[in-house]
């Protein structure tokens, strides 16, 4: 464990050196903010109160900090380093933000619908650790009694089975997929809003970014 922490410190220190070499204060600030967001997101997940546990806004904020902030601010940083306009940088940010949210929403769906082999981790990993994600949050809107089960902490395997039963009878998984698709479409729209170019490489790159939104939505692992 101590070695893992030291390895993480080493990687962070190397990243700091690489950032400093860019000599771009705005980009350095953006990536520093990402690190802060990653810590904030993990802290939010570890310290969730019973009231926050069933709050969709809290879930989306945590998802932004844990996943979408890294992607969105990285996209914005690339635009800034490439000398693009403020508008292009913000569109790049919006692309990354919505792509990241879509990715995590699908990840949360796959935790219920995927297999351990395809995911590279145990399926139902989140719920077995008491982590409440979008499919269950949507399911509680249809079955308020599910909220009572969730509030008990899901430490009891019988409660996990009961929660899964409610989820299976709800539209929770489909609504989470629909929300992911909405964010994927917003990401694609951000790319479409960027200035047009006749350069073939630019056009291929734009299409690749749009194609990536479809890959995120349709992935099975």
From TrEMBL:
Write out the GO MF terms. metal ion binding; prenyltransferase activity
Gene Ontology terms, cellular component aspect? transferase complex
Fetch the SUPFAM superfamilies from UniProt: Terpenoid synthases
Cofactor dependence is on: Mg(2+)
One GO biological-process annotation of the entry reads: isoprenoid biosynthetic process
- A Pfam family matched by this chain, by name? polyprenyl_synt
Secretion signal, residue range per the UniProt entry: 1-18
Q: Which UniProt keywords apply?
A: Isoprene biosynthesis, Magnesium, Metal-binding, Signal, Transferase
Q: Which family would the database say this protein is a member of? A: Belongs to the FPP/GGPP synthase family.
Recorded protein name is Uncharacterized protein
